[in-house]
Amino acid sequence: MHFAHYRFSQGAEVGDLRKLSDSLRSMSQKTVYFLGTENAEKIHYVIGLSPDLSQSPVDAREAMKALSAVLEGSGGGRKELAQGGARNDGQFQTRWDDIVQSALAYLKGIEV
Length: 112
Prior knowledge:
Layout (H helix, E strand, L loop, with lengths): L1 E6 L6 H14 L3 E8 L3 E8 L10 H12 L2 E5 L2 E7 L3 H4 L1 H13 L4
Parallel strand pairs: 1-2
Antiparallel strand pairs: 2-3, 3-5, 4-5
Helix pairs in contact: 2-4
């Protein structure tokens, strides 16, 4: 299983995350991805699974809980795709490594 993560520069919109998410879902295999962007007020993020992981134990909602805790935000969605947000207090930049490590820790114990 692969984990891909990408942080957009400021100015990207939630729609940009969704477009990239759709592309990743259609082009990847055994992949979990985290995408995020921020503006002056808010952080937006998406976590998703490639279609071949839809029957696996990996759950984007559970990963979202872990990532939202790091970002002090909230989110939800479906097993294969979840979206979240948080007030932007600069934590997206300062906690990026923690975000990645949190996602990897969630995935570490899951066999697919």
